[in-house]
Predict the structure.
Amino acid sequence: MSELTIEARTDKLDEVLAFVDKGLEELDCPVKVQMQIDVAVEEIFVNIASYAYGQKEGMATLQFNENEDKTAVTITFMDEGVPYDPLVKPDPDITLKAEDRPIGGLGIFMVKKSMDRVDYEYRNGKNCLTIVKSING
Amino acid sequence: MLNINKEKNGNELTFILEGRLDTTTAPTLEGELKGEVDGITSLIFNLKDLEYISSAGLRVLLSAQKVMNKQGSMVIRGANDDIMEIFEVTGFSDILTIE
């Protein structure tokens, strides 16, 4: 298991992705899956950076785990901001025409679509969002 | 990192994107578009060398599409399979004209 604790700010995104990519590269993760995981990590981290602490600053912690046979990864995001379950948000209507499509609301939908599992839990004063993704290609 | 190259030919404007269109780089592209899109009737995005797109990048493409629906047309070219899959999952493949 590896862990990164970092200021929850969007200008830290590159460091967050570097941390995740390092873990994925050690597992020989296919490029396509790495991109899907990177997109999910970006959406979740940027959400935390943008909303968890309001105007204040705070920290975010990522835990990176692989399963025993190294075929799947689990990444958990933790913050101590306002309790917020992004999974209760209704999915956007992706059949709408461009004019009718709202600009936002896609991020967490992309996470749900591309990851094998997404779980949210509020535990010990922390938002904990966990994504699981098989890396078998 | 995102490199943005532009080619203008009369009312036709091509953006050639290379690298990553993400939370960090999307605002730059948005700014470039705002400054250039006036009077353009044909907007082309060449994504041949685009490696990565997140929802921040999709948002910029969606706003550009909305603008171009009013004043002309917009086309996406050269997107690789990984980026195509993101367009498909998000329903963007139905909104955008992809060649």
Notes: Chain B touches chain A at residues 22-24, 51-56, 58-59, 62-63, 65-66, 69, 81-82, 85-86, 89-91, 94-95 (CB under 8 Å). Chain B has four helices and four strands. The two ends of chain B are 25 Å apart (CA to CA).
